[in-house]
C-alpha cells in the first residue's frame, strides 16, 4: 500500500494561503529546501483539487517532470496543461485504487476540500505541517471541519530556520 | 510592562475543546506538568472570557489560590464564585491598565473571542501552544478570524511526551 501524505506550510492559525490565494508570507530557508527535497524524493505522484491547482498555476506551471500529477475537478472539461491529468470521476475511488497500486509515495497538496473527502474515506496515511510563525487571521484553511476526530502519532518534529516548526504525523487506525 | 500570554493545548487543526466544551482528548504527561508549572510560576493573574469560565467551572472551581482571576462578561451580574473577579466593563481598557501596572505575567486562557479583541488592541505579547497529535474535526477554535496578520517570533519549541509539540512565540511589533 502506498503512503498518502497530506500537508503544507501553514500559519499558526491554520491557513495555507491568504483569501486571495497569496502565499507571499511563507518563509523559505535551506532547512525548508532540505525537508521538501527529502520528502519529494520518496514521492512520484501529486494530487490536488482544482482550486489548489489554480493557485499553483498562478505561480507557474504545476506539472513537474518526474512526477505524475492529478487534478480533481468536476467543472474542468480538459486537462489544463500538458503533464497534468484531469480526474473528473469520484476522487475517493480513484485514490483508493492509486493507493493500492504500485509506486512510490503520494503527495496530497494542501487545499483542504479534497483532503476532507479523503480523510473521511480513511485514505490518508500521514500529515505533515511546516508551521510558520504568523497568525494570518483569515485565508484558506489547511483543515476543514470533519465529522469524526482523527488520531495521529507524531513521527518527526524539527525546528527549522526562521522560527518554523516542522512536524510529521502518522494517522492512527485504532481498529487495525 | 507585564507580559500577556495567550495559549492553550490544541488539536493540530486548532481546536481547544469539542463543541460540547469537553477536553477529554487532552494528553497529560510529566512533561505537560513541568511546562505548565514553569509557566505558571511566572504568572500571578489569569484572564478568561465567560464561556471559557463556564467550561472550566464544569471541571471544578476555577479560582486558584495565589492567582488573581478575572472573568470578562457583559451578561453575568455578579462574580460567579468566590475568588473570581467579574469585569463587566470594556476588556481592552481594563487589560491595558492591568498590563501597564505592577505584577507578574498575565495568562490569557484559550477561548478565542476575548483573545481576538485583545490581539486587535495589540495587548498580547506571547502565544503558547501545546499541539496535540489529533485532528478534532470540529470544536472551539483557539484562534478566531482577525482582520490583520500578526507576526510572531518563535522563542521556544520542544517535543513533549505522547507526541505533543510545545511552542512559544513572541508577538512582533514591527513598528516599535
Word description of this protein:
- 2 copies of one chain form a homodimer.
- With about 180 residues, chain A is an alpha/beta fold.
- The first copy, chain A, has a single domain, classed as Dihydrofolate Reductase, subunit A (3-Layer(aba) Sandwich).
- Chain A is about 20% helix and about 35% strand.
- Chain A has 4 helices and 11 strands, in the order E-E-H-E-H-E-E-H-E-H-E-E-E-E-E.
- An 8-stranded mixed beta sheet of chain A has the order 5-4-3-6-1-7-11-10, sandwiched between helices. In chain A, strands 2-9 form a two-stranded antiparallel ribbon.
- In chain A, a hairpin with a 3-residue loop joins strand 10 and strand 11.
- The longest helix of chain A is centred in the first third of the chain and has 11 residues.
- Chains A and B meet through strand 7, strand 8, strand 10 and strand 11 of A and strand 7, strand 8, strand 10 and strand 11 of B.
- Strand 10 of chain A pairs antiparallel with strand 8 of chain B.
In oligomeric terms, what are we looking at?
homodimer
Q: Quick one: biggest sheet of chain A?
A: 8 strands, mixed
Q: Percentage of helical residues of chain A?
A: 10-25%
> How large, in whole angstroms, is the Cα Rg of chain A?
16 Å
CATH architecture assignment of chain A: 3-Layer(aba) Sandwich
Q: Regions of chain A with pLDDT < 50 over 5+ consecutive residues?
A: none
- What is the fold named in CATH at topology level of chain A? Dihydrofolate Reductase, subunit A
**Structural domain count of chain A:** 1
CATH class of chain A: Alpha Beta
Shape type of chain A: globular
SS-based class of chain A? alpha/beta
List the helices and strands of chain A in order: EEHEHEEHEHEEEEE
Average pLDDT figure of chain A: 93
**CATH superfamily membership of chain A, which one?**
Dihydrofolate Reductase, subunit A
Strand content of chain A: 35-45%
What separation lies between the terminal Cα atoms of chain A?
Answer: 14 Å
Amino acid at each position: 500500500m502506498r503512503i498518502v501524505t497530506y500537508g503544507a506550510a501553514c500559519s499558526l492559525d491554520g491557513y495555507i494561503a491568504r483569501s486571495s490565494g497569496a502565499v507571499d508570507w511563507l518563509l523559505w530557508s535551506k532547512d525548508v529546501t532540505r525537508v521538501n527535497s527529502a520528502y519529494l524524493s520518496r514521492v512520484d505522484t501529486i494530487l490536488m483539487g482544482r482550486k489548489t491547482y489554480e493557485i499553483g498555476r498562478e505561480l507557474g506551471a504545476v506539472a513537474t517532470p518526474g512526477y505524475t500529477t492529478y487534478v480533481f475537478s468536476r467543472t474542468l472539461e480538459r486537462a489544463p496543461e500538458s503533464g497534468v491529468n484531469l480526474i473528473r470521476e469520484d476522487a475517493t475511488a480513484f485514490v483508493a485504487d492509486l493507493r493500492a497500486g504500485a509506486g512510490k509515495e503520494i503527495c496530497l497538496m494542501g487545499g483542504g476540500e479534497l483532503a476532507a473527502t479523503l480523510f473521511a474515506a480513511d485514505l490518508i496515511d500521514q500529515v505533515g505541517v511546516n508551521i510558520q510563525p504568523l497568525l494570518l487571521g483569515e485565508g484558506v484553511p489547511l483543515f476543514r471541519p470533519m465529522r469524526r476526530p482523527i488520531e495521529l502519532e507524531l513521527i518527526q518534529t524539527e525546528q527549522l530556520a526562521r522560527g518554523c516548526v516542522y512536524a510529521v504525523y502518522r494517522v492512527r487506525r485504532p481498529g487495525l
